[in-house]
Amino acid sequence: MARVTDDGTVAAAVARWKGDPTYAPGQIVNGKTICGAKKRKDQEPCGAPPINGATRCGRHGAKSPAVAQKAKERVIETNARGILGRIDPEAPREHPVETLLNLIRAKNAEVQWLRSKVQALEDEELVWGLASHREGLGPEGPIDVKEHRADQSVWWKLLREAENQLANWITMALKAGVEDRRVRLAESQGGAVAGAIRQILDGLNLTTEQAALIPVLVPNALRQLTGDAT
Predict the structure, then answer these.
(1) Burial of 25 (0-12, 13-18, 19+ CB in 10 A)
(2) In the prediction, which pLDDT does 1 show?
(3) Residue 129 belongs to what H/E stretch?
(4) Is the distance from CB of 44 to CB of 52 less than 8 angstroms?
């Protein structure tokens, strides 16, 4: 008898099979997964490949609406797990599509918040910033020297990086088969998170020293929501 595959997309169906093992789903013959269902003509197991995401071929039930829908869901989940492995190897795999949408939701919150910071900058602040700050006590007394130079704002750099990541993740999710409306909903929910963060920070009346920590603390906190601590 051909051995049975342990492929994740058919493992549950294989485990539930209680019939003749000769016709079990998920069998591998000559290195290829076969349908395995009993053929009426010669009573042999069907050697056709199962439909992607299903355990049987189209002739043996895989084209029915319910089975086809379940097969589609399995394919999307498998694709989503692959994407999560690239984005965040530590992300939970039990509900890969929801986990992926949560990552998009949090990343969009980061993008929206950073965009609000860039929009608040004066034009010259976008291309002219603080390069170094020496403060302390020198041979001639207290030192407080700030050096400015032409450079892109740290807010601008962080925004571009986050926007690129978000665009890549959305593209991967759509290619994986996740419905467009679910991806867009995750984006809009991320925008709501960013709005809440802005409201909280605006109401804290932070000191200059505390406000200076925002470019590091807030993006890092949002990245932790996405599992992206880099």
Answers:
(1) buried
(2) 37
(3) strand 128-138
(4) no
The structural domains of the chain, with segments of one domain joined by +, span: 1-60, 87-121+153-226
How far is the C-alpha of 101 from the C-alpha of 126, rounded, in Å? Answer: 32
Residue position matching structure tokens 């920070």: 201
Q: Average pLDDT by consecutive 10-residue portion of the chain (230 residues)?
A: 45 73 82 86 88 84 83 80 75 74 84 84 67 66 66 80 88 84 74 64 65 63 54
Select from 30, 42, 32, 34 the least CA-distant residue to 14.
34
Q: The tokens of 24 are what?
A: 């079990």
Joined together, the tokens standing for residue 222 give 């949002």
Backbone angles phi, psi at 68, to 5 degrees: -60, -40
Q: Side chain identity at 154, as an amino acid letter?
A: V
- Note the helical H segments in the chain: 8-16, 65-87, 96-119, 123-127, 154-176, 180-203, 208-212, 214-226
33 beta partners: 28
Q: Which two tokens stand for residue 145?
A: 């020297």
Nearest by Cα to 110 from 215, 184, 185, 2? 215
- Look at the pTM and tell me if it is higher than 0.90: no
> Longest Cα pair distance anywhere in the chain, in angstroms?
101
Which residue in 124, 108, 100 sits closest to 159, CA to CA? Answer: 108
146 phi/psi in degrees, rounded to 5: -110, 130
